[in-house]
Amino acid sequence: MKYAIIKTGGKQYKVSPGDVLEIEKIEGKEKAKIVFDQVLLFCQGKKLLIGQPLLKKTKVKGEIISQFKDKKIRVSKFRAKSRYRKVKGHRQKKTKVKILTISANSAEN
User: Fold this and answer.
1) 26, 28, 68, 102: most buried by Cβ count inside 10 Å?
2) pTM of the entire predicted model
3) What are phi and psi of 3, to 5 degrees?
4) Which residues, in sequence order, are CB contacts of 67 under 8 Å at separation 6+?
5) Residues 6+ apart with CB under 8 A from 13
6) pLDDT for 108 beyond 60
7) CB distance 13 to 21 below 8 Å
8) In degrees, to the nearest 5, what angle opens at C-alpha 38 toward C-alphas 34 and 39?
């Protein structure tokens, strides 16, 4: 089994070829190819490469499927006995990405 752990948008994701992820918005149009170069870990069978903190020559290639907005969350503030109420909403912009390939240089680490 081949997988990698990548970092994007301040979060870490475990990805394998063929996976579809919903991540924080990345600039680009649909069908555009993207490369994730912040790879923290790579595993293929018994071969395991761990970055300190990143693997320099390991890359994960993907394709943007769509750009969309996530469901709305509501944030409310309330103080008792003072007539203070505020309600705000927020919709996070997200990108749906399909992972195509994971390539690693075996001479690392």
Assistant:
1) 102
2) 0.83
3) -150, 165
4) 25, 30, 93, 94, 95, 96
5) 5, 6, 7, 21, 23
6) no
7) yes
8) 105
Q: How much of the chain exceeds pLDDT 90, in percent?
A: 90
**Tokens standing for 105?**
């240089």
Spell out the SS3 assignment of the chain.
CEEEEEEECCEEEEECCCCEEEEECCCCCCCCEEEECCEEEEEECCEEEEEEEEECCCEEEEEEEEEEECCCEEEEEEECCCCEEEEEEECCEEEEEEEEEEECCCCCC
Report the C-alpha gap between 95 and 97 in whole angstroms. Answer: 6
| 96: amino acid identity, one letter | K
| Cβ pair 10, 40 in contact under 8 A | no
Do residues 24 and 12 make contact, with C-beta atoms less than 8 angstroms apart?
Answer: no
C-beta separation of 1 from 45 below 8 A: yes
Domain residue ranges of the chain, discontinuous segments joined by +: 2-63+96-103
